[in-house]
Amino acid sequence: MTVTKTIAAVAVATLVASLAQAADAPTPTPPKAEPHMQKVLDALASLGGKPIETLTPEEARKQPTPADAVKKVLTDMGKSTAPEAGVTVKEMSIAGPKGNFPIHVFTPEGKGPFPVMVYYHGGGFVIADTKVYEASPRALAKMANAIMVSVDYHRAPENKFPAAPDDAYAAYLWTLEHAKEINGDPMRVAVGGESAGGNLATVVSMMARDKKAKMPLHQLLVYPVVSDDMTRPSYVTNANAKPLNKPMMSWFFKHYGADPASPYALPIKATSLKGLPPATIIAAEIDPLLSEGVAYADKLRKDGVSVTYKEYKGVTHEFFGMGAVVPLAKDAEMMAADQLKKAFAAKK
Fold first, then answer.
1. In the prediction, which pLDDT does 25 show?
2. Which domains, from first to last, does the chain contain?
3. Active site residue: 195, 205, 234, 291, which one?
4. Is 68 a catalytic residue?
5. In three state form, how does the secondary structure of the chain look?
6. Which of 152, 166, 167, 287 is catalytic?
7. What digits encode the pLDDT tens for the residues 330-343?
8. Which pLDDT value is given to residue 16?
């Protein structure tokens, strides 16, 4: 055998060995959840849900949710699962490009007119609705003393991108126009949401800027989906995390059908974020989306946008809104409400 062939053979053998070693390498274990969060994860596991990525969207929408797990924990503790008092809810229907869709208006006790936040629920653009995420807008309405207009935008795959952002923007414009009718102040309107809803909140801000509409006062982004780069560190560390993992994100992106080059699908791909409203970004340590939230905060700051960022250790994606059973969630809700109150007070 010639020297060249020998070197080539050794190179191939080395490559095969390294690939085999990579295949045998253990998948990183997500960080350990703190005890209250772990109780929710255990409760969720006990409800017997199937892996979302193995299901059709219709089947996935019927699976137990983290909100169901919170109710189980409360029941196991002998506590009430009734919604916290002090907030009234009214369901309405408004028009969008794809037809009418529901909104839920959460109003705190008091005289008003109240500042308003347009809130977008999570669920990867495919599953969930306001009822699943109700604890979040309810808590924020009470803590921030503001009206929350929660939007049940059209979901994929029945209505693929850009249906969700188009509905989200239509709901924002509706709120500006009709705020007085719901005892709100049209001069003090913010946007916010969790996960896919965090995506929609910052996309609405971007659309308002690009269309030269009135800008939201503030954007509350709770572990927002802003990128499709699954090589980021948190996607590696939290590849098998619960309740959100890497296979689920692939499934959500597949069904959403978004243009991967569009900043209205993936905001981190925007050429510039200049001119967007001040942002509050809340992140969870045990979350595939952690790294992109950090990157988005950095990009906003680089483009001159004021950002308040906080990562909560020992909690997972979906922890926000679990204030009834997870103290760190209550802390995050209070932090978000305080940021909103500051933004609203500045424009009083």
1. 52
2. 29-346 (3.40.50.1820)
3. 195
4. no
5. CCHHHHHHHHHHHHHHHHHHHHHHCCCCCCCCCCHHHHHHHHHHHHCCCCCHHHCCHHHHCCCCCHHHHHHHHHHHCCCCCCCCCCEEEEEEEECCCCCCEEEEEEEECCCCCEEEEEEECCCCCCCCCCCCCCHHHHHHHHHHCCEEEEECCCCCCCCCCCHHHHHHHHHHHHHHHHHHHHCEEEEEEEEEEECHHHHHHHHHHHHHHHCCCCCCCCEEEECCCCCCCCCCHHHHHCCCCCCCCHHHHHHHHHHHCCCCCCCCCCHHHCCCCCCCCCEEEEEEEECCCHHHHHHHHHHHHHCCCCEEEEEEEEEECCCCCCCCCCHHHHHHHHHHHHHHHHHHHHCC
6. 287
7. 999 999 999 999 99
8. 42
